[in-house]
Amino acid sequence: MKKSRGRTGRKRRRKHLKSFMDGVNCSHKLEYIKLKKWLKERGFEDSNLRPAEFWETGRGLMTTKALQAGDLIISLPEKCLLTTGTVLSSCLGGHIVKWKPPVSPLLALCTFLIAEKHSGEKSPWKPYLDVLPKTYTCPACLEPDVINLLPKTLKKKAQEQKMMIQELFRSSKAFFSSLQPLFAESTGTIFNYSALEWAWCTINTRTVYMKHPHRECFSLEPDVYALAPYLDLLNHSPNVQVKASFNEQTRNYEIWTNSHCRKYQEVFICYGPHDNHRLLLEYGFVAMDNPHSSVYVSPDTLLKYFSPLDKQRKAKVSILKDHNYLENLTFGWEGPSWRLLTALEVLSLAADQFACWKRILLGDVISARNEQQALDTAAKICQFLIEETQHALLQISQLKRDKENLKTQLALVEMLHSEDLKILQKSAEILCNLNLGT
């Protein structure tokens, strides 16, 4: 008797563990019931997708039937999409049309989101707004202490992103004030910086690409955004392939899969072949074992390994700058990139070889000595970046103990550095084998 009860217990435990790994269905939650009802009223046919919580990715969509390559994952009617057309047909439309200089499509969408969120119960978009994240983890939203722990090249981009939103806020104040007749409360209170930051992140992380014809009432920036309720619950995986576009015939935004997906598993789409730095910058997350990931070498780090006494150093740096070889120099899963080795070969040129720099840019080998020197320097840079990454991970673990409130943000940056470390260690191994080979 005991034996069989034990086996049933094990079976039950296995089943529980399996359901935990697959994801926990969240369809019964009120916010999703309301969202599905709202979508149905706009013509959305119930698909095989269910909102669920997943162990690794958090909130996402699971499928209730197995998907094959070539299957349609989701088809969202145009009526469900939030675009600049939606904004113009709202009470904001008249104010936007009159405002000079014209606002950008991005600002129009931000303004609409803030205004609708402020409307609360009165907003026809409430069921969608209720399932949007309350906060984001894009670098622009990270605390300065956390931004400081980002890799050099990403830290610079994060600061630029923050400044860009600050500038958008500064330049939009007069436009926001012009909307005062629409609100009982002061527009200064409604359209504050944190509201704009939230709206900007919502659009930046969640819109699908959809080209709209240019309208005179908007500035010349491309109008290519559409917020797609429910569809935007689909998470990214670098290992799947999908086809996504607006179907002019059916007037639906459609996503077709080129991959298989088992029943009750999370359905993924691919946002593009992005590395982790780009994923964090644009979407606020990091992908584990991302095949597209790489670690960037800043120009400062690169030049640290070449003597300032080299008479041709200035000319070499000039050549690299002119031919765009000081940016996007990386280590990847397959070792140093061709661009990085090319830059190192140019910087390693001996005085009597300097005239051959053009041949290096064309992919020629100038001499075994030049090639070896470039590989040696790549190994040194790689080792330096490994130590720098390990130091950052140490700082993060100390901060995690001291600053409870920053735990989520720090965990994200920790994951980025851990993934970078894996790539650098793999690159170091490849360089070591190359040196052994020579």
TrEMBL record:
UniProt family annotation: Belongs to the class V-like SAM-binding methyltransferase superfamily. SETD4 family.
Domain SET: 42-272
Signal peptide from the UniProt entry: none
Keywords assigned: Coiled coil, Cytoplasm, Inflammatory response, Methyltransferase, Nucleus, S-adenosyl-L-methionine, Transferase
Lineage of the species this protein comes from: Eukaryota, Metazoa, Chordata, Craniata, Vertebrata
Originating gene: Setd4
Keyword Methyltransferase: yes
Record-given protein name: SET domain-containing protein 4
Entry keyword annotation includes S-adenosyl-L-methionine: yes
Swiss-Prot/TrEMBL catalytic activity: N(6)-methyl-L-lysyl(20)-[histone H4] + S-adenosyl-L-methionine = N(6),N(6)-dimethyl-L-lysyl(20)-[histone H4] + S-adenosyl-L-homocysteine + H(+); N(6),N(6)-dimethyl-L-lysyl(20)-[histone H4] + S-adenosyl-L-methionine = N(6),N(6),N(6)-trimethyl-L-lysyl(20)-[histone H4] + S-adenosyl-L-homocysteine + H(+); N(6)-methyl-L-lysyl(4)-[histone H3] + S-adenosyl-L-methionine = N(6),N(6)-dimethyl-L-lysyl(4)-[histone H3] + S-adenosyl-L-homocysteine + H(+); L-lysyl(20)-[histone H4] + S-adenosyl-L-methionine = N(6)-methyl-L-lysyl(20)-[histone H4] + S-adenosyl-L-homocysteine + H(+)
InterPro entries: Rubisco_LSMT_subst-bd, Rubisco_LSMT_subst-bd_sf, SET_dom, SET_dom_sf, SET_MeTrfase, SETD3_SETD6_MTase, SETD4_SET
Cellular compartments per GO CC: cytosol; nucleus
Species of origin: Toxostoma redivivum
GO molecular function: histone H3K4 monomethyltransferase activity
Protein localization: Cytoplasm, Cytosol; Nucleus
Record's subunit section: Forms a ternary complex with TBK1 and ZNF268; the interaction with TBK1 is ZNF268-dependent and leads to TBK1 monomethylation.
Residue runs in coiled coils: 389-416
GO terms of biological process kind: inflammatory response; methylation
Entry EC no(s): 2.1.1.364
Predominant localisation class: cytoplasm
SUPFAM superfamilies: SET domain
